[in-house]
Amino acid sequence: MKLKDTTELSIKRLFARDPISMEGQRCFCIVVFLVHTAIGAGEGSTNQPSTEHVESNELTVSFPPLEDLYTSTLEKHFATENNTVVTSQTGSTALLPCVIRNIGDGIVSWIRRKDYHLLTVGLTTYSSDQRFQAIHLQHSEDWTLKVRFVQSRDAGIYECQVSSHPPTSIFLHLDVVEARAQISGPTEKYLKPGSTLRLQCSVVQTTEAPAFVFWYHNSRMINYDAERGINVTTDTEQRLSDLLIPAASVSHAGNYTCVPNNAVPASIYVHIFNGENPAAMQSSSPSYIHLSILHSLYTTVVLYAIR
Known about the structure:
This is Ig-like domain-containing protein. By secondary structure, the chain is α+β, with helices and mostly antiparallel strands.
């Protein structure tokens, strides 16, 4: 006789000898059902492998210990590389970055290394030079030193320090350059009437594109003098400005100056020939006038001496 048949017979004899309530019978039936399920699984386990076991092996996932996660994520460190170089031009705004991960309760200070001058502590500026300011947004990891209206004397090494025991620091180097305009070619040009005058001005040693570039003929701004045959085109992103006069005349002789808003200007002098003789140039060049006066004085002195 099978095990489950024996169990059923025992249950019938138990009910006949000691009747129980309806609720008790329900609970007892549930227990019997579970016993039957277990017995059936046990009888069939010899020939059929367990599918659940295989699936559970495929879905197994392991995690690193919590202490390893905390050690790797909560350790304070600088995200900005040490000895980072920041280049800025005179008159512009320099931004020296200092990104710190997991700073906790640490306080950030900026120090100018050449004279060990304390510039800022937290968001407070300690320098009497109000051009220096610490920039930090709440909950961010950035503690940037902002230097407005950069001057050549601001160049040097700056220290970003975090209070700890001992303090930890990185160093950044501020390189200051002076942007300047540069007109291609020699500082003086010689043209015949009717020739094309083309001048190109580039802004060099600049970290920021100019907002505008003005051209001056002597003391007159000529960017919009199209009626005088002058065409000016400027590409601020490329830091280039071109001046074109298709047919230069005697009135176009003189000094031309390229003036970017954020760079040192550059000048060139244009001479216009009157005919084929360079000595008869129609020009108001200071150097040419000076030489003419000297030549006239020399001639007068010689003629006086002959007499």
